[in-house]
Amino acid sequence: MTRLIDREFLDLCLHDWLGTGDIAARDTVDAVLDLSETLARERFLTHFKAGDAQEPRIGAQGVTVHPEVRAAIAEYAELGLFGAGFAEDLGGHGLPFVVSCASFAWFAAANIATSSYAMLTVANARLIAQFGSPAQVDAFARPQIAGEWLGTMCLSEPQAGSDLGVVRTRAAFDGQDDLGRRYRLVGSKMWISGGEHDVGGNIVHLVLAKVAGADGSLPEGTAGLSLFIVPRVLPDGKRNDVAVAGLNHKMGYRAIPNCLLAFGENAGAVGWLVGEEGQGLRQMFMMMNEARISVGLGAAALACRGYGHALAYAQERLQGRGSDGAPVPIIEHAAVRRMLLAQKALGEGALALCLYAARLVDAHADDAESAALLALLTPVVKTFSSETGLEANAMAIQVHGGYGYTRDFDVEQVWRDNRLNPIHEGTTDIQAIDLLARKLLKDGKGLAVLKARIAATCAAADGFADEVAALQAAWSDVDAALEMLRLRDAALDVATPFLFAFGHAVVGWIWLDLAIVARGKGKRIEAGTAAALRYFIACELPRVRAWLACCTAGGAVLEADAGWM
């Protein structure tokens, strides 16, 4: 049985490193993880390839998906996993966010496309529970927490891309009822995962739109965005004025439909305002930030799965001969072992980073330091995991040789699925601007917290003197580059390589922290964690200085004229 995620490493992260025992009983956590792995293998993994081969289709009855997707989501709901991380008074189980994330990692590793229905629904329901009125929570959040309905996030439009300031979906006030201020929406939304399907009884869309003025004009920029709850089926049982206008055919995540949606082609789609007008983007950022952690977690889980496939293949595939002339498995070759160790260091490092961020979510409501650190690390979580997870999956293909890029082996699809994650929920370059412009150049609170935690780790790292020295040198390079960027007019030109460097420096610290905690936890986990640390420090951390070279170079780095490129 191919390993999806190393359970022993996951236990180390949760129980020994992140201290989930302070917020949840260990037997409860273990039971949730056992259940999650079993369901992921028996209901999600089983249609991993079939859902990819038989994409959603538009027919007379709307969009239909592979029947095993419906069955998997139904059992996920029956076991209460949609509500795992919600308070009991909302119908949930009250699990900490870090535990629900660890649970979700199994499903993402087994089938990232099918698990995305749940990820989007949970984030949708959490936003409504946070910002919606009691009536809206009862009407729209509770059915999603129960898994009876599913949800989406509708931000972008065909002409807008990532520039939400130019959104043109309009909303006109249409009266007041028990669910709040009601509006009629007209417009279109693009790239909507799970936008239309036959999986759940209803779909709750969270739609960003602009309220038209008295003269019919729309406010400019993102400040004019408001957020609306727009269900596919209205409370009276009638179909809302929402239609799928087309499906986008992606290279991965194929079992979940990605839609162009049309709102208001007839009388206007009915939607209810969440909170106040003009607060939509602030509210949606809660959902987007949770989704960024979830996308990073999914990318890390896929990296771990690819590593499991590559390891199993390398242990079985005979090629080349040993000193006695007998055939040997390819894991005996140094080049293969290097690629396997690289996948472990990147994939499990990303998984640990995501779980660390999830633990901060549990703490940040009552702890300003945790909130500041979470804000700083969110773009790092999303980017490091999605970018290096893809690198790890590429190496998994390489370990398989020619078989790796055939559809007969899963690593080909794992790579395709993961290739979407650097774009999902904000591209890598958008995350880079967020980190550099907002989280570092404008506000240094999160960085101060991070540096204090790194210093504490280094002080406790007896026996890792060389690794500590290398990590401290890397952070000195980051600090020096950041100080130069504070004085540079075109700092954002190099925001992306700076994010890459920053992310690697963060994960170098995480591996050191993990290696300290792993001591005495068993020969396999202690030796494996130490090996991953040594590899990361020796082979990955030097990339930090290379990425920062363009950040500290004098003059403009990007002088290309669009006319001659």
UniProtKB/TrEMBL annotation:
GO molecular function term, any single one: oxidoreductase activity, acting on the CH-CH group of donors
Cofactor(s) demanded: FAD
Residue span, Acetyl-CoA dehydrogenase-like C-terminal domain: 452-557
Keyword tags: FAD, Flavoprotein, Membrane, Oxidoreductase, Transmembrane, Transmembrane helix
Boundaries of every Acyl-CoA dehydrogenase/oxidase N-terminal domain copy: 70-148
Name this protein carries in UniProt: Acyl-CoA dehydrogenase
Family listed: Belongs to the acyl-CoA dehydrogenase family.
InterPro entries per record: Acyl-CoA_dh-like_C_dom, Acyl-CoA_Oxase/DH_mid-dom, Acyl-CoA_Oxase/DH_mid-dom_sf, AcylCo_DH-like_C, AcylCo_DH/oxidase_C, AcylCoA_DH/ox_N, AcylCoA_DH/ox_N_sf, AcylCoA_DH/oxidase_NM_dom_sf
Pfam families tied to this protein: Acyl-CoA_dh_1, Acyl-CoA_dh_C, Acyl-CoA_dh_M, Acyl-CoA_dh_N
The Acyl-CoA dehydrogenase/oxidase C-terminal domain, residue ranges: 278-437
Annotated ranges, domain Acyl-CoA oxidase/dehydrogenase middle: 153-263
Upper classification of the organism: Bacteria, Pseudomonadati, Pseudomonadota, Alphaproteobacteria, Sphingomonadales
Electron transport in keyword set: no
Residues that span the membrane, as ranges: 498-518
Domain of life: Bacteria
Organism of this sequence: Novosphingobium guangzhouense
